[in-house]
Amino acid sequence: MSTPRTLAVVSAGLSNPSSTRLLADRLTGATARELETLGHDVTVETIELRDHAHAVMDAMLTGFPTGDLATAIEHLVAADGVIAVTPLFTTTYSGLFKSFVDILDKDALGGMPVLLGATGGTARHSLAVDYSMRPLFTYLHADVLSTAVFAATDDWAGAGDQVNPLPRRIERAGKELAERVHVRQNVGPADPFASTPSFLDMLGGA
């Protein structure tokens, strides 16, 4: 009997179409195929940050995400696993990507399996995944996968899978995330009021 699993995919590409979204889709496909092999029905919730850019800025100013952005965050924190992909600018994640992470509750991704991906012009930027993205999600107590995927411009023009390592790395990362999601029991986001006594409890001794 198949069991449902949900993937939340955060894509911070600024253009349309974008190589960032292309990488996100490839990672999602690899993960979904492996989850189906493991006996799961897979639902994918894609969060295209470009579509929420103004709402993200409003949330930073007000402290409260609203509308479609609030719905997207609900899908994110309720997912069984997350794929997060950003373009790299000046050797780090984009401002839009960081702003989105900044409006999340600090406990929203606690224990969440997260696969990191990034795109950039040249392979010189690939280390940014480990020295900027990974610490960011580690700070949020996410379960960050050891395998991350960086795609430079030249990777999309490679001479086939036998020469270009990108497809093999995508498959490896997708399998790793699927295995982590497969064994995870998603309990959903923590209730911030769970430990608050009820009015009747407070009157119990009266």
From TrEMBL:
The keyword Ligase does not apply. Gene3D superfamilies: 3.40.50.360. This is NADPH-dependent FMN reductase. InterPro entries: CE1759_FMN_reduct, Flavoprotein-like_sf, FMN_Rdtase-like_dom, NAD(P)H-dep_FMN_reductase. It comes from the Bacteria. Residues 7-155 form the NADPH-dependent FMN reductase-like domain. Keywords: Flavoprotein, FMN, Oxidoreductase. GO terms for molecular function: oxidoreductase activity. NCBIfam families: LLM_duo_CE1759. The keyword Lipid metabolism does not apply.
